[in-house]
Write a structure and sequence with these properties.
single chain; 320 residues; alpha/beta; 7-stranded mixed beta sheet; 6-stranded parallel beta sheet; 9 helices; 18 strands; globular
Length: 320
């Protein structure tokens, strides 16, 4: 079957490690399902895998991709939950959780095998391309907002770095839930688009805000960390799910964190139940994931290049 996979690692030029070509068909083991993939979306996790972060050399070659929507063996339209081993379903009881494309082959292929527990019904309201955006970036944003940020309708939330998959999802979901969403970006066009999606206001990266916020959603890391901490009201919450600009900020802002009794919460992906709730929320409220580009799988290199350059606004989706 045709797939996009990591054939090697290249820390500085990750696209040099990307290959497109034939890979073995997935194994239909006991209590697992083989899904015919109709659409899959890209995540920065795929670039990190090509750099050799979180992926062992002995696992190569590894089909990339965490997110997918498709059709199961019975003809049902389904959504794939990408965390394998979270509760032991379909794997050994002591196996640590991994994302698809870390231990098990990923979704950037014509077919993918996952435990049956990891297959959910796809909402009929969403296309395959839209549904394929949910399992990683949109699920991460959903958990950050509604599980870990401790906010409620009317509260203010700052999202750092408008344009990325998680940031865009957070703006749309938060606005739909009655939150007052603020965003930052270095790109004026991305700021305008974020406002069009429901953000109350958008600011230059690092700009002083008109008021302090109840929560900050942080995926950028070192470049925005100090601004995130300084933007919080006393007792506010900073939720971090990534550090694309690096994990070592110039200042940790420890004095401000303890003096203002700020909360710093790590957030990774979400549960299967949260994914089901997210899908239901999108269907009920007419929410549609923001898609930047749709490409056929054989043009995956173009999508990776666009993501690596930070040019996208929303998700990049590959169709099979």
């Amino acid at each position: 079957m045709f797939a996009a996979y990591a054939a090697r690692f290249d820390r500085d030029q990750p696209l040099n490690a990307l290959e497109l070509g034939d890979r073995p068909e997935p194994e239909a083991r006991t209590d697992w399902a083989v899904v015919d993939v109709r659409a899959a979306s890209l995540n920065h996790h795929d670039l990190w895998s090509l750099r050799g972060v979180g992926l062992a050399a002995e696992a190569l070659p590894m089909t990339l991709g965490c997110d997918a929507a498709g059709v199961d063996e019975d003809g049902n339209e389904v959504l794939v939950y990408s965390v394998i081993g979270a509760t032991g379903h379909g794997v050994g009881p002591t196996e640590r959780r991994t994302l698809l494309s870390e231990k098990y082959q990923g979704t950037l292929a014509e077919r993918v095998a996952v435990p049956r527990w990891n297959v959910l019904p796809k909402p009929k309201e969403l296309s395959f391309e839209e549904a394929a955006c949910l399992p990683t970036a949109w699920l991460t944003a959903y958990r950050m907002l509604f599980t870990n940020a401790g906010v409620r309708p009317g509260d203010s939330v700052l999202v750092q770095g408008a344009g990325g998959g998680v940031a865009t999802a957070a703006v749309v979901l938060g606005a739909a839930a009655g939150l007052r969403m603020l965003v930052t970006s270095r790109d004026a066009a991305k700021r305008e688009r974020a406002v069009a999606l429901g953000a109350e206001a958008a600011f230059e990266s690092g700009a002083r805000l008109p008021r302090r916020v109840d929560a900050v959603l942080e995926t950028v890391g070192a470049a925005t960390w100090s601004h995130s901490v300084k933007s919080l009201r006393p007792g506010g919450t900073l939720v971090i799910s990534g550090a694309t600009s690096g994990q070592a900020p110039p200042s940790a802002e420890l004095n401000r964190i303890f003096f203002l009794e700020l909360k710093v919460v790590g957030s990774t992906m979400g549960s299967r139940e949260e994914l089901a709730s997210l899908a239901s929320f999108c269907a009920a409220k007419g929410i549609r994931p923001v898609i930047d580009t749709v490409l056929p799988l054989d043009r995956a290199r173009e999508g990776f290049a666009r993501m690596a350059a930070g040019e996208q606004f929303g998700k990049i989706v590959l169709t099979m």
